[in-house]
Specification:
Number of helices of chain A: 3
Order of helices and strands of chain B: HEEEHHHHHEEHHHHHHEEEHHHH
Distance between the termini of chain B: 18 Å
Largest sheet of chain A: 5 strands, mixed
Structural class of chain B: alpha+beta
Largest sheet of chain B: 3 strands, antiparallel
Oligomer: heterodimer
Radius of gyration of chain B: 21 Å
Shape of chain B: globular
Distance between the termini of chain A: 45 Å
CATH class of the largest domain in chain B: Mainly Alpha
CATH architecture of the largest domain in chain B: Orthogonal Bundle
Number of domains of chain B: 2
Radius of gyration of chain A: 16 Å
CATH topology of the largest domain in chain B: Cytochrome-c3 Hydrogenase, chain B
Helix content of chain A: 10-25%
Chain lengths: 151, 378
């Protein structure tokens, strides 16, 4: 399946999706409310992107971007990057951990590090940081007066 | 760290369904690091396992945001400290890909040999530690005898035994030790003679087999869904070897088999690792006599700057697929860096595969997942 085929296939299901081919892999940018639907479609036939090998978030100072790296266990040469831009003050997106179980831990990490709220996540608690920790350490404006890492 | 009610539970008082909650770790001899598992039991049967992480969280991702592309490689040695060469390779490859740096053939071959030596050393340590958790003490000494030879080779060549920091963007930090080839050949010879000893001691052992066969079974579907990689996934029949899928360094010119088994239990995960060691030896044998002459490091600029954009590099560590994701704004430091560590995903499957088994079997399941805690916490 070439990038063109994938683009046509996605456009038929999500006409609002935009594409970015400047990087190594095809990037698909969608609105946060469409992400869950598109993820379900990509996981099913005929794409079968059943392997979520990286889930993370990037702080661009003006907005947050959720980044999902997907591939198919049948054909590991197909690699797709799914992205959704989130509002920085109220980041809200639906969980994908019922599609890919690995997302459960990764989303908990993003939740504590970036403050992204995942709708319908079964167990959204802090995973690595201590319970009373204030702030979201991987955001660019995070300030810690005692243990700030500056080199 | 955690509030008192959560961590100290009165163990004499049982929950509503006769449930008993015990804390395993963070100081526990079998977790080999500060892993804290809150295990909910019904009698001896495991109902739920909840990992509590963060005891060795050093915020490596945040740290790397303020380090240059030459500096950040050294931090990654401290992630999965048993695969430090491979972590360094991943970062070096990413910077080389982003800047189109030409790597000399000599560096590529040496990197591959060192990566495979690291893999063997890691599996040796694992075999010893896991057998010890299951009550067999002798394999530990047998495994460390060979591992010691590798750490000696590393010490000669890199100056360190654990956190090597030998691989830099463009090639190697300095040339290999004059006795490198002789010592590696001596190691290969000894390993081939002695590997049968492990088989005699552990593989055919009735106690070991009855403690691992059919324990912690992971199906292929679950392995994919939970994002498992490395020997854990390959024991369940999932093809996921990055050295085959996206060859880097000199892996495209060597012959080796990707070990695939289908049973998915603890014993199979053990077998996959033992067979993998033999494949690593095969790779080393093909390369050790053919190290090309020439430069050991390519020409690079003094200040490394990655172009604006996103980069992703995947390598196969001893534990599975390590992914390095960098978002660059065009400066000398990364804007955002994410390490997709294999241990993190492999740990998430622990609750699923040990549900319903006995607490004693947890050692076998956890041991064969080969968890390295600094790799999980980062």
């Amino acid at each position: 399946m070439t990038n063109e085929d994938i683009k046509t296939y996605i456009t038929t299901h999500t006409p609002e999706a935009t594409f970015d081919e400047t990087g190594e892999w095809l990037n698909i940018i969608v609105y946060p409310n469409q992400l869950k639907t598109l993820a379900t479609i990509l996981n099913g036939q005929p794409m079968q992107l059943d392997f979520l090998f990286c889930l993370t978030c990037v702080d661009y100072k003006t907005h947050l971007t959720m980044v999902y790296h997907l591939t198919s266990s049948k054909d590991r040469t197909i690699n797709i990057v799914l992205k959704a831009n989130l509002d920085r003050t109220q980041p809200l997106i639906e969980t994908v951990c019922d599609i890919w179980r690995t997302a459960e831990f990764h989303e908990r990490e993003v939740f504590e590090m970036f403050g992204v709220q995942f709708i319908n996540h079964p167990d959204l608690r802090k995973l690595i940081l201590e319970d009373g920790f204030k702030g979201y350490p991987l955001r660019k404006d995070f300030e810690d007066p005692i243990n700030m890492i500056k080199l | 760290m955690y509030n008192e009610t959560e961590i100290i539970k009165d163990t004499t008082e049982l929950g509503p369904d006769g449930e008993l909650v015990i804390n395993m770790g963070p100081q526990h001899p079998a977790t080999h690091g500060v892993l804290h598992l809150v295990v909910t039991l019904n009698g001896e049967t495991i109902k739920k396992i909840e990992p509590h992480l963060g005891y060795i969280h050093r915020s490596i991702e945040k740290m790397c945001e303020s380090l240059t592309y030459r500096q950040f490689i050294y931090v990654t040695s401290r992630m999965d400290y048993l695969s430090s060469h491979i972590n360094n390779t991943a970062c070096a490859l990413l910077v080389e890909k982003g800047m189109q740096i030409e790597v000399p053939e000599r560096a590529k071959v040496v990197r591959t040999i060192l990566n495979e030596l690291t893999r063997i050393a890691s599996h040796e340590l694992w075999i010893g530690a896991m057998a010890m958790d299951l009550g067999a003490f002798t394999p530990f000494f047998y495994a460390f005898r060979e591992r010691e030879m590798i750490t000696d080779i590393m010490e000669d060549t890199c100056g360190a035994r654990l956190t090597m920091n030998y691989i830099v963007p463009g090639g190697l930090m300095y040339d290999i030790h004059p006795e490198f080839q002789t010592k590696v050949k001596a190691f290969v010879k000894q390993f081939k003679e002695k590997v049968t000893e492990y088989e005699d001691l552990v593989t055919g052992n009735v106690i070991f087999q009855s403690r691992t066969k059919g324990i912690g079974v992971l199906t292929a579907e679950d392995a994919i869904s939970y994002g498992c990689t490395g020997p854990v996934a390959r024991a369940s029949g999932v093809k996921c070897d990055m050295r085959k899928i996206a060859p880097y360094d000199a892996y495209d010119r060597v012959e080796f088999d990707e070990i695939i088994e289908t049973d998915g239990d603890s014993f199979t995960r053990y077998l996959v690792r033992v067979k993998e060691m033999n494949q690593s030896i095969r790779i080393i044998e093909q390369l050790i006599d053919n190290i090309p002459e020439g430069e050991f490091v390519g020409k690079t600029k003094n200040v490394l700057k990655l172009a604006k954009g996103e980069f992703y590099q995947r390598v196969e560590t001893a534990r599975g697929e390590l992914g390095v994701y960098i978002v660059s704004e065009g400066g000398t430091t990364p804007h955002r860096i994410k390490f997709r560590s294999p241990g993190f995903s492999n740990l998430s499957v622990l609750d699923h595969i040990s549900k319903g088994s006995k607490i004693g079997d947890l050692m076998a399941t956890m041991g064969t997942l080969d968890l390295v805690i600094p790799d999980i916490d980062r």
